[in-house]
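Sharing a chain and its predicted structure for anyone who wants a worked example. Both blocks are below, sequence first, C-alpha cells second.
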Amino acid sequence: MESDSSYVLWECCRFIFLSVYSVFKAFYYVLKTLILKILPRKEKSVADDVILITGGGRGIGRQMALQFSKLKPKHIILWGRKEEPLQKTTEDVQNLGVSCSYFVCDVCDRELIYKTGEEIKSSIGDVTILVNNAGIFNGALVLNDTEENIHKTFAINALAHIWAYKAFLPGMISQGRGHIVTISSMLGIMSLRGASSYCGSKFMTTGISEALHLELEEYPNIHLTSVHSYQVQNDMFQDLKLRFPWLIPPLSEDYVAKATVRAVLCNEKIIMMPRIMYLLVPCLSIFPATAMAPLFRFLGVDSALESVLAQKQKTE
C-alpha cells in the first residue's frame, strides 16, 4: 500500500516537473523567435553547397537561381520540363561565374526523379540545398474539375516533394547537413473558392513539411524552410482578380525569390509574404468562419477566380 502511494506521488511530481519544463521551454523558443525577428541575423555561407531548384527555368525558380548565384555556391542544378528556359537560365547563371547545369525532368514521373537524382550524385555530388519549387495552378470548382487535372496538380505540387525527399534527403543525412525549401503558398494555410485542387495540394505540402521537421529533429544541421506567399504577379495567377488590388498588391517574382533566399541563409522555418499575413493567419484560427466570410466577401476573395470559372463554363 505504501509503495502504491509512493508511486502515485512520484508520478504526480514527474508530471508537474515535465509540465513546468515544457511551459518554460515553449516560452524560451517563443522569446527566442521574437528576438531573432527583431535583431539582424547572421547569414550562413552556401559556398560549399550544391543547390537543386525544381521548376528552375522560369518564374520564381529562375529568380531564385539568379539570387543564389550572387552567393557563389559550389553548383546550381535546375530541373524543369522544357529545355529552352532551362538552358537560358543556366547560361545566365554561368555568366555570373557560377557552375550551373540543368536536367529535363518532369517531376510527375517518380522514377525519373530517382533516376536523375542518381545521375546527379554520380556526376556532381550530393545535393545539400533542395528547393521544391515546381508547381501548377488550374482553377476549377470541385465537381467540375477533371480527374486528370486533380491528379496532375497533386503529382506536381505535392507528391513530387516526397519523391525528391527520398532521392536527396539520405545524402543530406549522411553528410550531417542540408536544407529543404518548400515553396508552398498562403493557399496552403487558407482556401479559395475555385481552387480546390491547388489549395489541397498546397495544404498537403504544408503538412508534409511540418511532419518532416519533426522527423528530422535529431539532425540539427538539416534545416527546413516553408514559404507561403500571397498572390504573385506572374502568368500562373494572372486571372486572379481581387476587388481592391491596391490594398495588398501582388508580389513580384523577384521579391519572393529574395525573401526566400534570405530565409534559407537565416535558417528560418517559415515565412509569409507580405508580413500582414502573420496577422491574418491567427485570425483564421481565433474567429469562426462565419465571422471571416463577410470580410472575404468585401475584399472579393470569394469571387477572385470568377472570370476563370465563367470562362470554363462557356467552353464546356
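Comments welcome. The longest strand covers residues 222-229.
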